[in-house]
Structure of Beta-1,4-galactosyltransferase:
Amino acid sequence: MSFSRALQKTVSKRVLKTLVVLVVFLPLWTYMQASLTVNRSLVFIRSADDGNVRADDNVATESADAVRCSHNCGHSGTTESGSITSSSEPLSRQFSTPAVTEEVLRRHRDDVMPFCENPTRSSAPRWPSKEPVTAQELAERFPMMQLGGHYSPSNCTPREKLAILIPYRNRSVHLHTLLPNLIPMLIKQNADFTIFVVEQAMPTRFNKGVLFNAGFLEALKLGDFDCFILHDVDMIPLNDANTYQCRSDGPVHFMAGVNKFHYGLSYSWLLGGVLGFTKDQYKAVNGFSNLYFGWGAEDDDMFLRLKKKRMDYHRKGKDVGLYDMIRHSRDKGWEPINSRFSITHFSTRRIDDDGLNTAVYSRTSLRQLPLYTWIRVFVDMKQVYEKAPEYMKDVIEKASRENAALLSPGSVEDH
Ligand code: UDH
Ligand code: NGS
C-alpha cells in the first residue's frame, strides 16, 4: 500500500468516527441533558407539594400559600413544569432568587388561566339535604378541600378570595347540616373560599357582633381575603345560583326570603342571615357594634351604619336568594334584653367609637380542621362594656344588669 493510500484510509476512518460521534452520540447526550432538566423541575414541584419550598429554597414567605399554589398549579396541568423547561434560564438561577412568591405564582396563573366564571347562573332551586353529616363523612365526601376548610379551583383564576365567617356556639347539628350544602355550592360556583367557624367560649352571653369582628380580624391574620360572607349557621341556601361574591358598589344581602316567613322577610330592611362585605366596606362601617349581648338588634344597627355611611346594599332576588332555616329553639345565653333598643338609639353617634376598632376578645384556640378553620374566642362582657362611650353609661348599666340576671349560675351550661 502506498503512503498516500494509507493516509487516505486513516483520514476516512477519522472522518467516519467523527460522523458517528456527531450523528449518534451528540443527540443522545443532548437528550439525556434535557430529560435531566425535566426531572429536576419535577423534583422542585414535588418538593413544593411536600412543603419544603421555604426550608430548601428560601423563596416562599408564606409557605402554606406558596405550597398550595404550587400544588394547584401543578395539578392544573403541565403548565408549571412546561414553563420551567421551556425557559432558557438554568433552574438554579430561576429558583434561588426570591421570585417564587405567592404574587408571582398568582400572576403566572393569571397568564395561563382565564378568570373563573360561575357556571351555576341558571341552576334550578334544589331540595336541600337536612340530614347532618358526621365530620369524618364530610371529610371523605370532600377530599378536594384543603386543611382549614380551603378550596381554590385549579383550572381558572379566582377573582376574589372569600372568607366565610360563621358565628357559632353549641350548634354542631346545624353546622354539620350547613357544610354539606354550602361546600358543594361554592365549589360549583368556582369560588376560592375558606370557611371559618368562630366560636364563643362559654359562659358569657352570646355576642354575634364581636364574633364577626373577631372573625374578620383573625381571618386577615391568616390570609389576604377580599370578601367576607357573614353566615348564620342555620341558614341553608336553596339555589346554587346564589353567587357568593362581593360587589364593589355596596354590601350584598344574599337572603331574599326564608321558609320561616313563607320565603319572604319579616321586614324590608332586615339584614340578618347571610351578608357579604368587601374588606374595605367592612372597615368603612367599622364592622359590627360590640355592644349587643343576646339576641336581636345587631343587624338593625348595621343597617343604620350603612345608612350613616351612605352605603347602598344589594338584596338578591327571590329567583336565587331563598333559604331554609333549620328550626330550633332559643339558645341559653342568647335571650333578648330590653336594653337593646336603647343601645340602638345611639347607633350612628358611636359608629366610629364602637366596632372593629374597639373589639376586645381573647383568642383561646385556633385549629385548622379538614373542613374549616376553627377559632374560639373568649369575650369578657365587662371589658366590652368598658369601651362603650361615656354618654351611654346609663344604658350600659341597665344592659349589664339585665345580662347579669340572665347569666345567673346554671342558666348557661357548657356542651
Ligand atoms: N348562634 C349560635 N349559638 C347560639 C346563638 C346564636 O351559634 O347560642 C349563631 C348561629 O350562627 C345562628 C346565629 O347566631 O344562626 C343567629 O342566631 P339564631 O339562629 O338563634 O337567630 P334567629 O333570629 O332565631 O334566626 C332566633 C331564635 C328563635 C327561637 C324561636 C322559638 N320559637
Ligand atoms: C328584629 C330584630 C333583628 C332580627 C329580626 C328578625 O326584631 O335583630 O327581628 O328576627 N331586631 C331587634 O330585636 C331590635 S327573626 O324574626 O328572623 O327571628 O334579625
The chain has two domains: 2-112, 135-406. The two ends are 107 Å apart (CA to CA). Residues 236 and 298 are 21 Å apart (CA to CA).
